[in-house]
């Protein structure tokens, strides 16, 4: 009985971090919706669409690592970055990138003497 309870407690401890992890999204699953919602220059929109096609082709060929790299490039153009999670191998989520800090104004020229 005691061994069974210890075993059950051990299984619960091992499974808890995994349950807290989100499911890893399929390659390119977020891009369709974000492409419709995000305002992009036409050249960037075409780049994202080309990367999306590339992702689909690579994923179909079983080259998930290359497909994920293309996905990361496309998501970066859409304003998102991959944030790695500690709850399991290769777990991540997409986070909106912070707007770049405003560039400080150039210093005033030194007065002439």
Task: Describe the protein's architecture and organization.
The protein has a domain at 21-96. The protein has four helices and two strands. The chain has helices spanning 2-20, 31-37, 42-60, 64-77; strands spanning 80-84, 92-96. The chain is extended. The model is unreliable at 8-16 (pLDDT under 50).
Q: What form results from the Cα inertia axes?
A: extended
- Name the strands of the widest sheet in spatial order: 1-2
Low-confidence stretches: 8-16
List how many beta strands DSSP finds.
2
Give average pLDDT, whole number.
78
How would you characterize the largest beta sheet? 2 strands, antiparallel
Helix content range: 40-55%
- In whole angstroms, how far apart are the ends? 92 Å
Query: How large is the radius of gyration?
Result: 22 Å
SSE run: HHHHEE
Tell me the strand percentage band. Answer: 5-15%
What's the helix count? 4
Structural class: mainly alpha
């Amino acid at each position: 009985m005691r061994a069974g309870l210890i075993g059950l407690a051990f299984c619960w401890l091992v499974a808890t971090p995994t349950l807290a992890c989100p499911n890893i999204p399929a390659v390119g699953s977020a891009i369709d919706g974000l492409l419709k919602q995000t305002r992009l220059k036409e050249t960037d929109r075409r780049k994202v669409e080309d990367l999306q096609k590339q992702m689909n082709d690579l994923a179909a060929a079983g080259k998930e690592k290359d497909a994920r790299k293309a996905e990361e490039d496309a998501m970066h153009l859409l304003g998102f970055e991959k944030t790695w999670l500690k709850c399991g191998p290769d777990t991540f989520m997409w986070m909106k990138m912070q707007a770049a800090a405003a560039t400080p104004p150039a210093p005033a020229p030194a007065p002439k003497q």
